[in-house]
């Protein structure tokens, strides 16, 4: 396996020489210049309407006109001084949708179910065409008479007599149980 | 044989197959229980009104759902290994039969006492007598005495085949140049059907196996008759 051939010994020795005669900086000059750049988060704050994470990083309306700004100023005071409309306006500045608006039903399911049924229908047509034009005729053993004789023979041979086929036949009264 | 559209196993005709049926019931019950639990959890997770769904790091449930699957696996492995070793026991057979696979028929040799050998070809569909089973009937059946341990040595003369009879719980690959041993006891008299279970060419689906278990006197009469015919 790993026996010391001349070539291998030569390789190992030359490696030791190189390690002794050069420094780390020369050998690994492309690595680790001891200057790690500062980690800067350059992402922009996002807005989202999500049921499971309620408070987004930024308010809905960032750019406020003078009316909005004066309302925000009023918000800094006691909230009992705010009227109902002002509170709603403040909410609408902060958020896009209310919870009921987020949870509104979308009627997408109708498109999905409809599309599914259309695909089933097309598949059914393909299968019908295939049964008519592609499949060869069934073997003669599928005929009614043959199947009846086959069932009788299976009962006579007591095929699966414990819990299976023949177990369902009442041999005394000659009928299915 | 299976009746049309049968989904489950055929009734057992040997003690080993009975054990396998019970083990299958056991393992399937475990599988159904786990699947029901998982389905319930999926439905519960999807339909919850709760919004805080990202609780992480809970030691207790992690321990439960590591230990419980390990216990369940042990509960499956123990009966399985029991049956495995049961199948491997020295069984002191009363009769040894060699089943040789060819393209595309089986041949059986009963050489314990006399030299009896015969081929077993499938009966073609057009030659069936009304009531016979398509693709399952053969011209000669492998007859064995009932309630006797039988050793079957399975091999092949050309390519890989596999000698399988589901109701006896037997399947053994027929490898050319190799003798594989399997054994069974037919617990009840009857006719048991099987089909070649290793792809072996164009007529792989058309080389069935039929084992007929009969009382010993009938077996003796049959083997005498077969020797005379040969």
From TrEMBL, chain A:
Main location: mitochondrion
Entry membrane topology: Single-pass membrane protein
SUPFAM superfamilies with a match to the protein in the record: Mitochondrial cytochrome c oxidase subunit IV (SSF81406)
Gene3D superfamilies, per the entry: Cytochrome c oxidase subunit IV
Subcellular location: Mitochondrion inner membrane
Keyword presence, Acetylation: no
Subunit structure, as described in the record: Component of the cytochrome c oxidase (complex IV, CIV), a multisubunit enzyme composed of 14 subunits. The complex is composed of a catalytic core of 3 subunits MT-CO1, MT-CO2 and MT-CO3, encoded in the mitochondrial DNA, and 11 supernumerary subunits COX4I, COX5A, COX5B, COX6A, COX6B, COX6C, COX7A, COX7B, COX7C, COX8 and NDUFA4, which are encoded in the nuclear genome.
Function per UniProt: Component of the cytochrome c oxidase, the last enzyme in the mitochondrial electron transport chain which drives oxidative phosphorylation.
Protein name: Cytochrome c oxidase subunit 4
Species annotation: Hucho hucho (huchen)
Automatic annotation (TrEMBL), chain B:
GO molecular function, one term: cytochrome-c oxidase activity
Stored PROSITE patterns: COX2, COX2_CUA, COX2_TM
Residue span, Cytochrome oxidase subunit II transmembrane region profile domain: 1-91
Locations listed in the record: Mitochondrion inner membrane
BP GO terms, sorted: ATP synthesis coupled electron transport
Bilayer-crossing regions: 27-51, 63-85
Domain Cytochrome oxidase subunit II copper A binding span(s) in chain numbering: 92-225
Major localisation: mitochondrion
GO cellular component, as recorded: mitochondrial inner membrane
InterPro entries tied to this protein: CcO_II, CcO_II-like_C, CcO_II_C, Copper_CuA, Cupredoxin, Cyt_c_oxidase_su2, Cyt_c_oxidase_su2_TM_dom, Cyt_c_oxidase_su2_TM_sf
Membrane topology: Multi-pass membrane protein
Cofactor, free-text remark: Binds a copper A center.
Keyword list, A-Z: Copper, Electron transport, Magnesium, Membrane, Metal-binding, Mitochondrion, Mitochondrion inner membrane, Respiratory chain, Translocase, Transmembrane, Transmembrane helix, Transport
Superkingdom as given in the UniProt entry: Eukaryota
Cofactor names: Cu cation
Transmembrane is among the record's keywords: yes
Record's catalysed reaction(s): 4 Fe(II)-[cytochrome c] + O2 + 8 H(+)(in) = 4 Fe(III)-[cytochrome c] + 2 H2O + 4 H(+)(out)
CDD domains in the record: CcO_II_C
The family this protein is said to belong to: Belongs to the cytochrome c oxidase subunit 2 family.
Function: Component of the cytochrome c oxidase, the last enzyme in the mitochondrial electron transport chain which drives oxidative phosphorylation. The respiratory chain contains 3 multisubunit complexes succinate dehydrogenase (complex II, CII), ubiquinol-cytochrome c oxidoreductase (cytochrome b-c1 complex, complex III, CIII) and cytochrome c oxidase (complex IV, CIV), that cooperate to transfer electrons derived from NADH and succinate to molecular oxygen, creating an electrochemical gradient over the inner membrane that drives transmembrane transport and the ATP synthase.
NCBIfam families tied to this protein: CoxB (TIGR02866)
Protein name (database record): Cytochrome c oxidase subunit 2
Organism: Hucho taimen (taimen)
Gene encoding the protein: COX2
């Amino acid at each position: 396996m790993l026996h010391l051939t001349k070539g291998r010994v030569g390789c190992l020795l030359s490696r030791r020489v190189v390690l002794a005669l050069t420094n780390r900086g020369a050998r690994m000059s492309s690595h680790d210049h001891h200057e790690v750049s500062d980690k800067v988060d350059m992402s922009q704050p996002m807005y989202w309407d999500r049921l499971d994470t309620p408070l987004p990083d930024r308010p809905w309306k960032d750019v406020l006109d003078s009316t909005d700004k004066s309302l925000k100023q009023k918000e800094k005071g006691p909230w009992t001084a705010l009227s109902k409309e002002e509170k709603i306006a403040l909410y609408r500045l902060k958020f896009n949708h209310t919870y009921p608006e987020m949870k509104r039903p979308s009627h997408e399911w109708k498109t999905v179910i409809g599309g599914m049924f259309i695909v089933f229908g097309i598949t059914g047509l393909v299968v019908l065409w295939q049964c008519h034009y592609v499949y060869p005729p069934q073997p003669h053993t599928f005929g009614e008479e043959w199947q009846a004789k086959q069932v009788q023979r299976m009962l006579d041979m007591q095929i699966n007599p414990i819990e299976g086929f023949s177990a369902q036949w009442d041999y005394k009264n000659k009928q299915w149980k | 044989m299976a009746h049309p559209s049968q989904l489950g196993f055929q009734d057992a005709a040997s003690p080993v197959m009975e054990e396998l049926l019970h083990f299958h019931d056991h393992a399937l019950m475990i599988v159904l229980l786990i699947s029901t639990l998982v389905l319930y959890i999926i439905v519960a997770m999807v339909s919850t009104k709760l919004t805080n769904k990202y609780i992480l790091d809970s030691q207790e449930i992690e321990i439960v759902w590591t230990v419980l699957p390990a216990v369940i696996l042990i509960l499956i492995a123990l009966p399985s290994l029991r049956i495995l070793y049961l199948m491997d026991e020295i069984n002191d057979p009363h009769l040894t039969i060699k089943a040789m696979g060819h393209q595309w028929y089986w041949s059986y040799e009963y050489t314990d006492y006399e030299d009896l050998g015969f081929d077993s070809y499938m009966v073609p569909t057009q030659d069936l007598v009304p009531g016979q089973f398509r693709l399952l009937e053969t011209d000669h059946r492998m007859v064995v005495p009932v309630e006797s341990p039988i050793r079957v040595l399975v091999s092949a003369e050309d390519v890989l085949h596999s000698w399988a009879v589901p109701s006896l719980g037997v399947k053994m690959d027929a490898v050319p140049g190799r003798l594989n041993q399997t054994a069974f006891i037919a617990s009840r008299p009857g006719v048991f059907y099987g089909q070649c279970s290793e792809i072996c060419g164009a007529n792989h689906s058309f080389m069935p196996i039929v084992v007929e278990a009969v009382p010993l006197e009938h077996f003796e009469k049959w083997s005498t008759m077969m020797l005379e015919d040969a």
